[in-house]
Specification:
- The chain is mainly alpha-helical.
- It has a domain at 23-73.
- It has three helices and no strands.
- Helix 2 packs across helix 3.
- The chain is elongated, with a radius of gyration of 20 Å.
- The termini are far apart.
- The mean pLDDT is 87.
- Residues 78-88 have a biased composition (Pro residues).
């Protein structure tokens, strides 16, 4: 990877060796963990900008940032009731 990097060529080569030995499942888990971490960091940033927002509102704001306001409309002013569940 050219451009901005604080990783030395030796360390980068070692990282690539480690990644090459990982199974697809390990790589997938790594991607999921990094994705979750990025979402948590984004939510934390949104929380500082919107300190009174609920978790649901913060998730909506994150979705709007990721996908655009056209695809993620504003939430209704009232929260709809949870669907009734029937006992099994």
């Amino acid at each position: 990877m050219a451009g901005l990097s604080d990783t030395s060529p030796e360390v980068r080569a070692r990282m690539l060796e480690i990644y090459a030995r990982m199974t697809p499942r390990e790589k997938f888990r790594r991607v999921l963990a990094l994705t979750e971490m990025s979402w948590l960091m984004a939510i934390a940033g949104l929380r500082t900008q919107h300190p009174d927002a609920s978790e649901r509102e913060l998730r909506r704001l994150l979705a709007q940032r990721m996908y655009g306001k056209e695809l993620v409309p504003d939430l209704p002013k009232t929260t709809p009731p949870e669907p009734a569940t029937t006992p099994a």
